């Protein structure tokens, strides 16, 4: 057996032992060794058949189809912002590997109690997967600053790191002050000479939550957004997404519930293939807002909840929602045309503009009354 095949045999043997608990050590009597090799051979055959199955079930995504970024919220909680630009639904498995950059070695967990939420990312949408590492790792150790450019990253998978596709996402549990000084833009360094933003705030920063408890229901009212589209297809011209980026793929400061208008890809099509985000609704837990002087960070702006009060469109005993669309654009048409200009697969004319404007006007006026609790 040549060295290449020997290496693959050893890899398969190691993987098989880890997954099944069967010890295939060669330090055995000959009869048991023969039986062990038969098991390995069966494992190889199984791998071939499973790989053929995996190609069908776990279609790969190119690097351009998926964007991952993370944000550590403290107490072991990490938000993974996922943008699935592909036409395939992505389902992460509730498992991960936490790796160290410098050594390339996996960080040893103290338990397997890692909690996951929002692991399914529909095709063509954005969402936030929430991971709680508190009971699985020594967070006090992870939160200690590392030297130089060292750091951590997750390896995420859709099939036990075997037959699907794995994705890497960097994660920072502590701030590296030295790196920030080296890489901070000049404008930031100049501003830092003035009074720090944090000292200008009377309250704390409150982050938006991504919850499936709230959604938007279809109105019983018959609304015509585009007269060229059949009446029973009008609601198909809109979409509701969870997004962490705006229409220009710029991060918006957390996750938002976004109402979009769909426009066609080609002239003459009546349906929509390109979504234009219009209404940005940020959701917060009522209990997290201790004072109206607490702040939200949205689209590179810091606002107190007192300032955001005029944008409030929904509130119940647990959640409060704000329509913050005005922070993203002041001129609707200019905003829409700018998004269209960066797309090669979108068609736009006066008829489509009227559609978008009608959708915007209707939901701007009615969004608050259409938000409902699922549970």
Plain-language structure description:
With 375 residues, this protein is α+β, with helices and mostly antiparallel strands. The protein is 27% helix and 28% strand. It is built from 9 helices and 18 strands. It has helices at residues 3-20, 30-57, 139-142, 177-183, 186-192, 197-200, 305-308, 332-341, 350-370; strands at residues 66-74, 77-84, 90-91, 96-100, 115-117, 120-121, 125-132, 152-157, 166-171, 214-216, 238-245, 251-263, 274-285, 295-298, 301-304, 312-315, 319-323, 371-373. Strand 16 and strand 17 (319-323) form a beta hairpin. The radius of gyration is 25 Å and the shape is globular. The termini are far apart. The relative contact order is 0.10.
Would you summarize the structure shown here?
By secondary structure, this protein is α+β, with helices and mostly antiparallel strands. It is built from 9 helices and 18 strands. It is globular.
Keywords:
375 residues; alpha+beta; 5-stranded antiparallel β-sheet; 4-stranded antiparallel β-sheet; 9 helices; 27% helix; 28% strand; globular; disordered N terminus
């Amino acid at each position: 057996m040549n060295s290449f095949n020997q290496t693959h045999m050893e890899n398969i043997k190691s993987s098989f032992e880890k997954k099944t608990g069967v010890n295939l050590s060669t330090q055995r009597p000959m009869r048991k060794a023969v039986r062990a090799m038969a098991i390995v051979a069966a494992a190889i055959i199984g791998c071939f058949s499973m790989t053929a199955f995996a190609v069908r079930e776990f279609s790969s995504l190119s690097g351009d189809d998926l964007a991952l970024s993370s944000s550590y919220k403290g107490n072991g909680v990490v938000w993974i912002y996922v943008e699935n630009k592909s036409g395939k639904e992505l389902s992460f498995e509730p498992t991960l590997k936490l790796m160290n950059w410098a050594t390339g070695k996996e960080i040893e967990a103290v338990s397997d109690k890692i909690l996951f939420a929002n692991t399914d990312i529909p095709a063509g949408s954005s969402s936030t997967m929430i991971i709680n590492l508190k009971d699985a790792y020594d967070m006090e150790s992870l939160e200690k600053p590392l030297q130089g450019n060292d750091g951590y990253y997750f390896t995420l998978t859709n099939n036990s790191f075997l037959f699907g596709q794995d994705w890497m996402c960097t994660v920072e549990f502590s701030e590296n002050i030295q790196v920030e000084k080296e890489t901070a833009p000049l404008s930031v360094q100049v501003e830092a000479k003035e009074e720090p933003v944090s000292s200008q705030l009377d309250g704390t920063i409150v982050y938006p939550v991504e919850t499936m408890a709230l959604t938007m229901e279809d109105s019983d009212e018959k609304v015509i957004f585009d007269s060229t589209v059949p009446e029973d297809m009008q609601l198909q011209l809109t979409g509701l997404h969870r997004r962490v980026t705006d229409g220009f793929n710029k991060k918006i400061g957390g996750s938002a519930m976004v109402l979009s208008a769909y426009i066609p890809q080609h002239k003459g099509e009546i349906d929509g293939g390109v979504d234009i985000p219009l209404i940005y609704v940020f959701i917060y837990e009522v209990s997290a807002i201790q004072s109206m002087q607490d702040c939200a960070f949205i689209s590179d702006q810091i606002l107190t909840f007192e300032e955001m009060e005029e944008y409030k469109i929904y509130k119940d005993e647990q959640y409060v929602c704000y329509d913050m669309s005005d922070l993203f654009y002041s001129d609707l048409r200019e905003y829409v045309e700018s998004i269209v200009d960066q797309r090669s697969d979108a068609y736009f004319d006066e008829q489509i503009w009227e559609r978008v404007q009608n959708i915007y006007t209707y939901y701007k006026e009615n969004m608050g009354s259409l938000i409902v609790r699922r549970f």
